[in-house]
Each structure stands twice: as C-alpha cells, then as structure tokens.
Amino acid sequence: MTTIIKAADAAEFLSLVPRMLGYQPAESLVMIPFAGARSLGALRFDVPGDDESVDSIAATVLGMVCRLPEADAVAAVVYSAAEFAGGGMPHQALLAAVERRADTCGLRTTDALCVAADGWGSRYDPALPAGGRPLAELDVLPEGADAVPPALGDQSDGATLPEVGLLRAERVGRALRAFDRAVELLCGEDDRARTAGEASVDDDRVDPTALATVCHLDDLPALFEDALAWHPDDLTPYQSAALAWCLSRPSLRDVALVQWTGTMDDGDEAFEAQLRWESGEEYPVHLAMRLWGDGDRPDVERLERALTLARHVAAEAPRTSKPGPLAMCAWLSWALGRSTHADRYAAEACAIEPEHGLSEIVRSFVHAGHLPDWAFRRSSGAR
Questions:
Q1: Does domain 10-147 have CATH number 3.40.50.1360?
Q2: What is the pLDDT of residues 189-204, one digit of tens each?
Q3: Based on CB atoms within 10 Å of each CB, which residue in 46, 135, 250, 274 is the most buried?
Q4: What pTM, to 2 d.p., does this model score?
C-alpha cells in the first residue's frame, strides 16, 4: 500500500527521513530521489573521511539515482557527529559536489541538508544561523507520519546474531556431527570436512534421527520450502544442523538462494540445473544472474523469513560451520538493501574462513556500491 505524507517544510521532511529508512542514519549521506513531488525511496552511503574523495562519492551516488528512470530531482541529507559550532555547516564540500553532479545529470536538487550533533541546516537557507537550527525542530512530524513505524537504532543495529546458550550450541554441534556420519553411511562418501577437527561419533551406531533427517535431502527444494515455515525459536537441533550442512556447500546453497528469491519451482529448476552442470552442461544464465541481483524483484517477506532463519542457523552452528550460513545472511541482507549488515556478516565469515567465495563476492558488491537491479524498480510500498 502506498503511504502519502506531505512535509510542509525542511524540518518536517527531515523528521521523515529516518522513518523512510527504518533507522536513524549515522555518519551517512542519504539521497532521496523524487519523481515530481513523490519520493522514490532513499539510498544511504557512508560519509567520506576526507574532502578529496567527495567528487568520486558524488559521482557514485548520482550514478545510482540516475538508474531510477522516473527520477527528475533529488534531495541530499548528511547525518554527522560533527558540529556547526566554530565552523558553520559540516560537510558542505560533499553537498556541493552532489549538487554539481546532479546538475550535470540533469537532475534538480530540491534541498541539500545536514543534521549535525548540535543543529541542522540547509544550504538553501539564506537565514541559517551560524550555529544551525535547533534539533528539537525535527521532532515535529507531519500529519499522517504516525502510519510509518519510528526509526530504531542506526544502520548497524540488528546485525548481531541471536544469542545461543552453550547447551543449545553443543546439541546442534552433536547433531551436525551425527548428520555428517549419516551422510557418509548413506552416500558412501566422507563428507565431514567442515567438522573434521571436532569429536567423532560412535562408528558402530548412527543416530536414527540423523538418518531420518538426511532422507530429506532427497527432495532438497521441499526441505528449503518447509524451512521457511519453521519458527526459528522452535528449530530442532537436527533441523538447524541440516540447514547448516546445506548452506556450507555452494552447490546446495545456490539452490536455496534461487528458491528463496523466487519460488519452489525455481528451486526445482536450480536443483536440476546443478545436477546437469556437474555432468558437464552449462549452468543457465538466468539462474546464475540471481546471484548478481538481476531478475524479477523477490518477495520481501520471503527474503525476511529466509534471513531470520539463516541468522539463527549461523548463531547455532559450530564455528567451522558458520561461514556458509553467515554468507547466506550477507547475501540476503544485501538483497534487502542492508549493505552495512551484509558487509558485517561477510566479514565474520571471512574471519573464520579466509577467501570464502560467496562472502568475498558480497563484500565486493558492498565496497563497490553495487546494489541489486531490483532496488531501482518501484515497489508498491513507495513513500
């Protein structure tokens, strides 16, 4: 549903920006593109640490805005811990660079604002006091803004994995070792590389629950689809172990990635394509491109459920089995537009397993400012 809120002035507009983002940005440049009088969402970037890089940052952010075909104007807002006191409005060089680049791109700049530690102001305000305007003015919301949830925390909040008790972690670790042993027994292969340094299970007996859980691998898309309906707090140790095992194997993880960004039918196609690829056939380009963020816009609620699930699995898995689930957390966060979270999860994975493939890909996306193609298409929830 489209929410329409009209801001009467710059202060009311600034009161809305954190609600548009879902958090209070810190040390950030926020770009709000417009089509006429309607905003098309918001894009957040880290504020550069020096004035020498403002032109390159401006070129990057305006390049992204220009990918929105409807955009004809843009507002820029800097959020900073710097102060007006003693030096005037902070980050004017960055805002000026953004204005120049917008003009070059044929976009009108509706405003260039800064919310600092001791005040706020606009470059377009000829009566701006030297110390900025009072931050208390930003507490007044325009009519209808209560329909949008308040912002909680900054862009980094919410990336910490759920807390898991030691007993729970030990149970998942034992389940994963038993699962490995059951795979070896049923498949005739030693597939315990991820937990090789941990205690072994009794070679004379395999836990029957592990054997039953391994049987779900016969229909992997069904397992991944069922998993989206599991409540993370109610995961059994073997359910968590099965997902950690699958997400630690790129061929199986990619099936989950395709399916969770699409449908179970897409998962079936990806699973069959993986089998054909292992037999020497080409992997379908339209499936591979999902990794890069191309294709139809995913269902956000579906991605959110997948991310919540992956976060719990990553929290419960033994350290050596964490990189796979963490990489899935990173990719899903990136797909949802949470690049700060994505980089954190990917960095955690690489700290455990340097040169972890998917994690390095996600980090390269984030550091290059690459966003999914679907981020530049209007959704029904535009504000």
A1: no
A2: 544 444 444 444 445 5
A3: 274
A4: 0.84
